[in-house]
Specification:
Number of helices: 13
Largest sheet: 7 strands, mixed
Radius of gyration: 24 Å
CATH superfamily of the largest domain: P-loop containing nucleotide triphosphate hydrolases
Oligomer: single chain
Mean pLDDT: 92
Structural class: alpha/beta
Number of strands: 14
Length: about 400
Amino acid sequence: MFVGIVGKPSCGKSTFFKAATLAEVEIANYPFTTIKPNHAVGFVKIECVDKDFGKQCKPREGFCIHGWRFVPIDMMDVAGLVPGAHEGKGMGNQFLDDLRQADALIHVIDVSGSVNENGEPVEALSYDPARDVKFLEEELDMWYFGIMKKGWERFARMVMQEKGNISKAIGKQLSAFKVTEDMAEEVIAKLGFDVSKPDKWTDDEIKNIATEFRKITKPMIIAANKIDIPGADKNYERLKQMFPEYLIIPCSAESELALREAARHKLIDYVPGEKSFKLIDEGKLNDKQKKALSFIQSNMLDKFGSTGIQDALNHSIFNLLKYIAIFPGGLNKLEDQYGNTLPDCFLMPEGSTALDFAFKIHTDLGKNFIRAINVKTRMTVGKEYKLSHRDVVEIITGR
């Protein structure tokens, strides 16, 4: 799965991406610093199951800190979008196409209002960040609409002449956006359009369909970045009132990046997403570093409970996409052949079964599945057993 980081230029998008991944990306306060999309690995955070067994895990991928397991996810930082992107402005068509593979979006906005619609610096609080929320919705909707509208009349007539299924045809047309026939059928039924006369649908009706597809296939949360700038919190409260349909998370990408870099250099003990950190060796810190860390603690962590970066990643996977984390393990042995305890953790769609999990691990396990064991409860379960978040499951096969 891919989580796409989107927004206009200079809103802190690349800083957010680097803070989440520690990838080396170019960061500068001018439009179009990012031209090609950056790909890297970020991590969602869950309570590790190793404590349930009184053991210390050793992940093959990701890591574990103080009982918190960090599971890898794919992330993509897309170059900044500007108004008119769907018309090709600012290389917009290329940037939008980069988003096709994203399963969820984190829209990074400058909640302090210190960057205008073109990504140019302005005085803090002089620009209304609500405009950015609306602009991105409009650009994405018009992107979907443009794909649907291209050759629509001929497309609709052909479906009617061949007495085809318009939902199936739309699903095929928009398959790159992960639109399915069932999805198209549900949306058309919800909007009450006449499936027998798609050639009579107006542009507004087609745009309404496009908007629904965008909401389903590109679910989005808003990262209200630069919340630590004085006055930004008032914009944040206003945005929550204006856009109740979105989860809006107060963030400071610069604070998170500073904390992760400090932790990487063993200056502090910090678990991403937590509300505090500990100094490891205060003598190694200069006065400027001490002042910066103190500012982050009092103006970000004490006030908002975290920098918001880890919260945004977790919400995108567990709330928007509704995934759960499942660990493979044995009833009598939690180690792999190399002695690593609970080395793996898989992210599965909510509603996945024991059989789905067997196939996720390896095709042969799925094909030869006999039963599974819930290692925590020590109960035998069948292939239709619905998995729960943080289950530890052993697969029993006939081979």
